[in-house]
Amino acid sequence: MIKPLLAALAALSFAVPLAAQAQGVPSYAQGQPSYANGEENIHGRIVSFDGDYALQVRDEQGYVDNVQLHQGTIINPTGLTLEPGMVVSILGYNAGSYLAANEIDTPYTYYGGAPWYGGHPWNYYGPSISLGFFFGNSGWWHGNAFRGGFRYVGGARVYNNVQFRDVHTGGEFRGRNYVAPPERGGYVPHRNTRSNDNNHHDDHGHR
What is the CATH number of domain 2-197? Predict the structure, then answer.
């Protein structure tokens, strides 16, 4: 009787931390699955972008997050072409295998038709520069609007009393996707991907 009891206790001691660890990572983060859901915000650097909809971001906790844009995702500043290495703040919702991006903000401004930051071209500041250098100014990523505290789920910030729809402007919600026109920063893919766009649904089945 004692040996089976000890074995059961040992199995339980391993299972509990594993379960707790699994619940602390977003389902769209490469690594371990979780059960996180709802509106989320990630801070990080772009790892890759396919030029259409698929984006990967290494967040401030070191996870690589799978992100999907849709036609009409807000990108600030308007007209910016996303590139690997750029610093971003992404507002969206957990769609299971990816974070569905409703808004992507960057700290850059246009000068001479190119994105700049702090008096230099955006890529002057390499990966050795900490993310805190950019996120110290909360204005560009709506940080002043996010009150009520947050908790981390992996590298995602899940806020307690914030509705991200309160900061989106210039467009409309279609299901859970926020769609803005191009003149208001709404994303339009550079290549002809209309057939792919028709296959992108949010988690309520809306197109």
Answer: 2.40.50.320
